[in-house]
Specification:
Elements (H helix, E strand, L loop, with lengths): L1 H30 L4 E7 L5 E6 L2 H13 L3 H8 L3 E3 L11 H7 L6 E9 L2 E10 L7 H25 L16 H14 L3 H14 L4 H9 L11
Antiparallel strand pairs: 1-2, 1-5, 3-4, 4-5
Helix pairs in contact: 1-5, 2-4, 6-7, 6-8, 7-8
Length: 233
Amino acid sequence: MSDERAASTGRGDRGDSGRRLSGLYAPFIEQLDITGVSISVFDDAGRQSTICASDDLAARLDELQFELGEGPHWHALRTGEPVLVAALTNEPDANWPIFDAAVRDLPVGAIYAFPMFMGAVTVGVIDLYRSNPGVMDARDITLATTLTHRVARGAVQEALHSATDDSIVDVPSAPAMRREVHQATGMILVQLGITATEAFHRLRAYAYANDRAVQEVARDVVTRRLDFSDLPE
C-alpha cells in the first residue's frame, strides 16, 4: 500500500516538475522568434546545473558547450553581456573554434546567450537558438533580457529543488543535473591526487578524445567501470 502511494507521488512530482519547467522556458518561445531554449544555473562553486531544455536540440547545444568548455554560453557567463550569433557562417569563430566546428553538423542557424542575474550576481545563462539565421533587434534583446530576469528566481529555486529530488532527472525537458559528473570529478581527484579543476579537465578530455559524452564517461567512473589511475599518462 505504502509502495503504491510512493510510486503515485513520484509520477505526480514528475508531472508537476514538467509543468514548472515548461513555465520557465515557454515565454521565450512564445514571445521571441526563436526555435528552442535551455536554462542553466551555477552554484557558488561554479558548477553548472541545466534546469531545462525545450527540445532535444536545445539540450544538445547545452551539452556540447558543457563538454567543450567553450561557446556563447560561457562567453555570456564570463562577460555578463548577451552574446548574439545571428548567423553561423563558413568562417570559424575564433572565440569558440571547437564548438563552432561541432555545431555545424546541427540544424542551427543562430544562437543567442543571455546571462541571468539575481541582483549583481550572475547565477546562470539562458541559451536560445533559431533553426534559421536571424538578427535580434533592440526590442527583442530588451524583451529577452526582461524574460531572463523574470525567470531567474524560479530557475534557482528549481536547481535547489532538483538537488534533493531525484524525480527531476527523469523529466524529459530537464537534462540530468550532472550529479554524476560532480561525483566522478571527486573520484578522479582522489584517484590521481589532483585538484577538482584538473580532475574535471581530465574527465572532459577523456570524453572528447573517445568521442563520448562527459556524462556517459562520468557514469562509468561512478559505477567503477573506469578508473583514471589505470589509464596511461
